Structures are given as C-alpha cells and as structure tokens.
Amino acid sequence: MKKLLVSVLCLICAASAFAGASKEKASDAPVLVVYATESFLSEWGPAPVVFPKFEEKYGIKIEQRQGGSAGEIVNLAIMEKGKAGADIIIGVDNNLLSTVLKNDLFVPYKPAGIEKVKDNLIFDKSYHVIPYDYRFFSLVYDSNRIKNPPKSLDDLLDPKYKKSLIVMDPRTSSPGLGFLMWTVKCKGEGYKEYWKKLMPNVLTVSESWSSGYGLFTSGEAPMVMSYTTSPAYHVEYEKDEHIKTVLFNEGNYMQTEGIGILKNAPHMDAAKKFLDFVLTEDFQKELALTNWMYPVIETPLPDSYRSAPVSDRPLLLTAEDIDKNLDSWLNGWLESTLNK
C-alpha cells in the first residue's frame, strides 16, 4: 500500500508538472493583438477572411480588440501611450496621419512587397503607416430620380437640388470629414462660403455614414455623399444598377487606409509579419468585396467594380496642412452650417 501511495503521488506530481509545462507552452505561443475599425472586424468585413489565412500561414494567433471608428482607436492608443494595449492599428487613413505622427505612436517599418504599391498611394514616406487600400469620396445618386447628376462642386449648388442631398458630420464621420477636406482643397478659404450656399440643398447632416446612407437607400433623398465603390455593392449583392456615382470635373478627394505598428508593441516580430502579409495577394484580393475599397497592389477586381470608377484626378491635403488647420476648418464648417 505504501508503494502504491508513493506511485500515485509521483503520477500526480508528474501530471501537475506536465500541465504546468503545457500551460507555459500555450502562453508562449505566438500572438498578435490587433486594434481595428468596427467595419474591418465585422462579420461582413475583411477580418473573418484574412485573419484565418494569416494564422494558418504563420502559426500566430490574432487577438481582436474592437475600437469603433479609426479616430476612436487612435485616441485610445494615445491614452495608452507607453504601455501599448495592442501591436498594430488597422484603419489609419491619410486624414489621421498627422495625428499619429505628432503623437509618435508608431515605429517605422518598410514591409516586403512595398515596391509593388504605386508611389502616389504611399501617403507616409517615413513608413510609419503602410497603405493597404484606397477609394474616393464621391456623390452617389439614384438614377431613377436624378437623370443629369451634378458633375462638379459648383453644380451641386444648383437650386433644383433643394433638400436633395445627405451629407455627414465631419466631426464624427470619415465621409463627412472627406467631403469637408474636398471643399477646402478646391475652394481654399472660400470653403465656408461654399458650405453656406450648399446648405439649402442639404436634407440632413447625419452623424455617421451608415445612418446617412440608410436614409438614402430608403428613399429620403436622391443623393448622398459616399464612395466611388458604393454602387458596386448594389450590383454585386442586389443585382441592381440604378445606384450610380459620378466623378467630379475638379477631381475627387481620396481616402487611403493604412496599418501601423505601435511603439512598445509586445509582439513586434508578429506585427512585422502581418504588415508583410498585408501586401500579398492573399490579403489584397479580399478587400474589394469585404472592405469595398481598391487594393493597393495590382489585383483582379470583381465584375461589379465596373460601376466603381477610379478618379484620374485624386485630391489630397498634406498631413502638415491638416495638422495645422483641422480645428479651424471644423469650426468654420460648424459656423457655416449653423448659420444656414
């Protein structure tokens, strides 16, 4: 009996040691912690498709931390500065570049495959933020209700479009901010006067793209500020081609989204591998029908993208201009829209 008891105790000790070793091994398994926009992580977004590919290819487990909008995620990272709660941020666009650089959030990294990206899409030449997709803000309209759509910002002021347009608040919405930047780029200091003239044609200023676009698709107004890729969605999933977009004569403001590696990232090697992965076809080919944006490397597009034109006159403001003037532009917009 004594020998049996000793044997049992030995087995228990061995099992405990094995369990502890297994637990330690599991905790040491490679991990990548990701902050990403709500749309990227959603069930219809890229994450459910591209994350499993990365995990299988590299044997690295991705932990998702949802942060809402890109602006909210960046603000969270600023508050966490010095004790990174994640390794990378997905969804930092060109309008947020000045904020992340000013706050020294990211480490520079030039991933494999960057040479395949067109130079005009690399919006951060210091490589703190690496582009992965892009699109243009545009006027989207119901061709059953609008036969001859506006073809310029000035056309949009025509009184015949009274209460026909839905726009978004630039303080809370990426398309809203993009449209404001568009007017600033084309009108300079005259952007405030432009907005005063535009407001009689605006039905409502929505808080978010989803609420504004929902009003448009429900028929509340025949025009909405959205993206050049929006009609492709209706063609792909609804087999409906009456929702269209138009490229403006002066050009369309461009949005490019990127990824950055946070300073003090706990899993730096895994983060660099993910940025390398982003510029491969395995990642890029999934963006058109999940994120509804154009890939940044040459990749075949679905047939529905015949309704998603690419502007040959991309408009951009520099990160320096945005950093210096954003608060002033937002205040000017608010003043112009309140005093309509």
Explain this structure to me?
40% of the residues are buried. The termini are far apart. α7 runs parallel beside α12. Strands 1, 2, 3, 4, 5, 6, 7, 8, 9, 10, 11 and 12 form a twelve-stranded mixed sheet that branches. The protein is α/β, with parallel strands linked by helices and 340 residues long. The chain folds into two domains: 158 residues, D-Maltodextrin-Binding Protein, domain 2, CATH 3.40.190.10; 149 residues, D-Maltodextrin-Binding Protein, domain 2, CATH 3.40.190.
SSE arrangement:
Blueprint: H1 2-27, E1 31-36, H2 38-41, H3 47-58, E2 61-66, H4 70-79, E3 88-93, H5 97-102, E4 106-107, E5 130-142, E6 165-168, H6 174-187, H7 191-198, E7 202-206, H8 209-217, E8 223-227, H9 230-238, E9 243-246, E10 252-262, H10 268-278, H11 281-284, E11 294-295, E12 314-315, H12 319-338
Parallel strand pairs: 1-2, 1-3, 6-7, 6-8, 10-12
Antiparallel strand pairs: 3-10, 4-10, 5-8, 5-9, 5-10, 5-11
Helix pairs in contact: 7-12
Query: Class by helix and strand content?
Result: alpha/beta
Strand coverage percent = 15-25%
Shape: globular
Sketch the major β-sheet: 12 strands, mixed
Task: Report the CATH architecture of the largest domain.
Answer: 3-Layer(aba) Sandwich
The total tally of domains equals: 2
